[in-house]
Amino acid sequence: MICHGISLLFCLHVGTVASTAFAAVSSRLRGRRLPCVHRRAKPASLVEEAQQPVVKTRNFRPLKDKYGEKANIPRKPREHANPLAALHLSPIDLPEDWVSQVFANASQPVILDVGCAFGGWALQMAQKEPGVNFLGIELRGPPVEKALDRKDASGLTNLAYLKVNTLVDFDSILRDLSSDGCGVTYVTVQFPDPHFKKSHKKRRVVNRSFVGSCAVHLKEGAHVFLQSDILEVAEDMREHFRSAGPLFRDSRASVEDWMEGEANPFGVPTERERGRIENEEPIYRCVFERTSEPFRETWTEEEEDVMEFRLKRLKAKRETKGGEKAAARKEDNKWQTKQERTTESDLGNL
């Protein structure tokens, strides 16, 4: 009798488990997934939980890429953009009197911020210096739109932003600002896109054309302020201006000497600069002043050789540093492999 009762209980247990497993498998085959319920749960709770809708998560990235704004999904602006892409190579179309349209008093001196991103630095500077006009130029559209919204909310009349490809329109922008009587007193390039790859170096903002435009349109006494948290990028920008010979004067005599102090000369940090200061990371800054030397479109062969030599020397210096780092990594890998082999041999001898 006892054996009969035990066998009956065992059959009931097996039947309950089998029915639960069958229900789960059948629901999976029908595309539904029932919650895992304990076998002793009441029938009412079983029905209640089974009738609850199945919540599915979905990745909207394909819809966002396909439909864009039609999908009504906010897209985060890209941190970097390719200035040599076809959609960015069309020159900007501005009216002849655009300077007087964007500034209430176009006769005030101008500070041009190249690569202004969301325009926070220019906004704070415009509030701090009402007697100076500030123009921020940026390649990406969404940051410029947000910067314009912030400018409209502030009500500032000495602040403007433009969506500009510096590699295409920098010379014309600087020419219009200089010929309109106001004059550019400062050009700032703060934390530009590094473009680390060798094939991407041509995308960098500061090149020989950039330096040439500054030499042509900046008046004597105007300044160019450069800063970056990447030493290789800061050295590259600095060497381009130093290679211009007598046209620009570096505030530091030595190439290895950078501006000291946590704050930049303006006393207003950018968003990225503020983060680097909080993390106690180095920032490399330098200032160049436009001299009275007139710009010449043609250079002697000796001067061309000097500029080419300086750029080649900087390139060789960077490659040497890269080679030293690669050799150090190679030695570290050798040492690590040797340690692993020693550990394996020690374990094998146990």
UniProtKB/TrEMBL annotation:
Organism taxonomic ancestry: Eukaryota, Sar, Alveolata, Colpodellida, Chromeraceae
E.C. code: 2.1.1.33
Keyword Signal in annotation: yes
Could you name the Gene Ontology cellular component terms for this entry? Answer: tRNA methyltransferase complex
Where does the signal sequence lie?
1-18
Per UniProt, the keywords (alphabetical) are: Methyltransferase, S-adenosyl-L-methionine, Signal, Transferase, tRNA processing
Q: Name one Pfam family in it.
A: Methyltransf_4
Region feature (Disordered): 317-350
Q: Which reaction does it catalyse?
A: guanosine(46) in tRNA + S-adenosyl-L-methionine = N(7)-methylguanosine(46) in tRNA + S-adenosyl-L-homocysteine
Source organism: Chromera velia CCMP2878
Question: What is the superkingdom listed in this entry's lineage?
Answer: Eukaryota
InterPro entries per record: SAM-dependent_MTases_sf (IPR029063), tRNA_(Gua-N-7)_MeTrfase_Trmb (IPR003358)
Query: Compositional bias (Basic and acidic residues) at which positions?
Result: 317-344
Name used for this protein in its record: tRNA (guanine(46)-N(7))-methyltransferase
Kindly indicate whether the keyword Membrane belongs to this entry: no
- SUPFAM superfamilies in UniProt: S-adenosyl-L-methionine-dependent methyltransferases
Molecular-function annotations in GO: tRNA (guanine(46)-N7)-methyltransferase activity
